[in-house]
Amino acid sequence: MKMVEISEKSDVLRIARAKGSITLKENTIKLIKEGKIKKGDVISATKMAAILAIKKTPELIPLCHPIPITGANVEVKINTREIEVEVEVKSIGKTGVEMEALVGASTALLTIWDMVKAYEKDERGQYPTTKISEIRVIEKIKGGK
């Protein structure tokens, strides 16, 4: 096992966008919108968690290169039964930022789950309707833009 050698590659602008969603109960969504979640502001915490995760990606993914992150943006869209998270990461470097975008999106969704789990449990303490899904890279750009 070894880290891929990238020293011969040129520094270029690299952008990746990843997204995913979490399905929640309608009442949980209502509480989020009304700011009534006991743990605090779900949307702000979600955005901060994603950005922190982006910066920590090389510590979490063993063969991921540490790269300079020049920008990150997190968008959150609240629907009736789900919350969608989209993360964009930018870098000028020798390797792409797809893993950073994926880790950011995943962590954002996990943060939402953590903050609302008390409202999502059924009478047995299970999560029959809560689901994280469709985490994927939706765009990758190398150079330009």
Number of domains: 1
* CATH topology category name: Alpha-Beta Plaits
CATH superfamily, called what?
Answer: Molybdopterin cofactor biosynthesis C (MoaC) domain
- SS elements, strand count: 4
Order of helices and strands: EHHEEHE
Could you walk me through the main structural features you see in this protein, from its secondary elements to its overall organization?
This protein has 145 residues and is of the alpha+beta class. The chain has a single domain, classed as Alpha-Beta Plaits. Helix content is 35%, strand content 30%. It contains 3 helices and 4 strands. The chain has helices spanning 26-34, 42-60, 98-120, and strands at residues 12-23, 71-78, 82-93, 131-142. It has a 4-stranded antiparallel beta sheet, covered by helices on one side. Strand 2 and strand 3 (82-93) form a beta hairpin. Helix 2 (42-60) packs across helix 3. The radius of gyration is 17 Å and the shape is elongated.
Notable characteristics:
four-stranded antiparallel β-sheet; 3 helices; elongated; 145 residues; single chain; Alpha-Beta Plaits
Question: Summarize this, please?
Answer:
This protein has 145 residues and is an alpha+beta fold. It is built from 3 helices and 4 strands.
